[in-house]
Each structure stands twice: as C-alpha cells, then as structure tokens.
Amino acid sequence: MSGHSKWATTKRHKAAVDAKRGKIFAVLSKELTLAARQGGGDPEFNPRLRTWISKAKGANMPADNIERAIQKGTGELPGETIEELTYEGYGPGGVGVIVEVTTDNKNRSASGVRSTFTKHGGNLAQSGALAHTFQRRGQFLIAQEATAEDPLMEVALEGGAEDVLNHGDHFEVLCALADFDKVSQALEQAGIPVESAELAYLPHTLVPLTDPDQAQQVLRLIDALEEVEDVKNVFANYDIEETVLSGSEG
C-alpha cells in the first residue's frame, strides 16, 4: 500500500494490535528464533536479530521470552522448524495483496490465508503473480512531530537511504534491502524515533477504490488477514480517499 495508506492503516489498527498482543508475541518469537538460527545469537553481528530484538522490546515483550526465542534459534533450547512463506493474491477491485507469514505449520497457515481470501471476495494467485506490481525495499515511517525534514534527510541519506518522502503527517524513508541495517543504525544514533521499520513490499502503481462498499470490502480483507495466525505483514496496492470512506459511513 502507499506510504499514506500504510500509515493510516497502522493508526487505524493500533487498538486491534494492542488487543492481539498474544499473537504479536508469538510472531515475534518465531522471527527471533529464525533470525538467530540464520545469523547466530549475537545481535552485534546479526543485523536481522538486532532489528527483531528492537521490535520485541518496542512491543513490551518480556526479556525472558526474547532470550528463550533466541536460544531456540541457536540450538541451546529445543524448538520447532520455522519457515518464512509469502502468499500472493487479489482482493476486491483487483487489488494486489502480499501476505508474509512466519510459521511452524505450513498447512495451517496456507489454509488460514486461503480461506480468508475466499471469505472476503478475493483469491490466492500463483507465486510471482505480483512480481511486477511490488518492489521490496527497506521502509521506515517516522511521525512528523518526531523530527524536522532537513535533519532527517541529512541523517537518512548519509546513512544510505535512497529517498525521504514528506507525507504531511509523517515521513517515509526508503532504502535498498542491503542498506536497511545501516539506515536503521543511522536513525537510532541520531536519536530519531521510528514508528515502523520493515522490509516492505511497496507497489509500483496503486488501484484507486472509489466505490465505498468495495473500499470497505478491501479493508475488511486486510483486517481479517492480519488476524490469521502466523501472519506477520500484509501489503496491498490500494488507494482510498478519506471522502470515499466517509461516504460509506453516511
């Protein structure tokens, strides 16, 4: 989804996210285990692990839970086999949707994602169907009141970012995947608080949704997918004007 839509969705779902903290901890545990398994248990030498530890702390995950998840990844504690999966599909209006999953049960995840698409007027697509619709890049979202544009741009670009976008209520910093950790460290060292930091699927083009009912259908699909067990991220290339949403409420 666009930077604006992503930010709006983040704010819209905050209450729901807080209510689903148990699920958040489960997803974070799997990500920590996977990161430690792939790059070792020392965050100083494992950028991915360092990023997920930061996210876990930001979600107020207990330190003991974080440590146990890392030890499962390094083999110090027994753990399940964890896989990263990506599903692609289409929602109402032809909106492209990419769903990222971290799971210890591939069949459960596939069934949950597939049935959610079907229930909400969408359908799964073959792998690679959206390869030309989205590009994977590092993305950081920063509240407008957290920093001024000029110092942010200086820090981000010197840290390796490709672009800094001002969306009015927030800034969006974009970078290549290989520079994600470098940019993250630059922002952290400059004391710039980040609301969201992830390797995101960003759309090349957006599908405008002008019909209020269809717009609500798409939002319900996104909500439902985010509630599926093991789902980590949902990306979609819709564009909805606030006037369309207010029209659906009237």
Describe the structure.
The chain has 250 residues and is an alpha+beta fold. The chain folds into three domains: 3-74, Arc Repressor Mutant, subunit A; 83-132 and 205-241, YebC, transcriptional regulation domain (Alpha-Beta Plaits, 2-Layer Sandwich), CATH 3.30.70.980; 134-203, YebC, transcriptional regulation domain (Alpha-Beta Plaits). It has helices at residues 3-12, 14-19, 21-39, 47-58, 63-74, 106-119, 149-158, 180-189, 212-227, 242-249, and strands at residues 83-90, 96-103, 123-125, 134-143, 163-166, 170-175, 196-203, 207-208, 231-236, 238-239. Strands 3-1-2-9 form a four-stranded antiparallel beta sheet. Strands 5-6-4-7 form a four-stranded antiparallel beta sheet, sandwiched between helices. Strands 8-10 form a two-stranded parallel ribbon. A hairpin with a 3-residue loop joins strand 5 (163-166) and strand 6. 35% of the residues are buried. The model is unreliable at 1-19 (pLDDT under 50).
Q: Indicate the structural class.
A: alpha+beta
Q: Rg, please?
A: 18 Å
Tally the beta strands: 10
Give the CATH class of the largest domain: Alpha Beta
Order of secondary-structure elements: HHHHHEEHEEHEEHEEHEEH
Percent strand: 15-25%
Helices, by number, come to: 10
Helix content: 40-55%
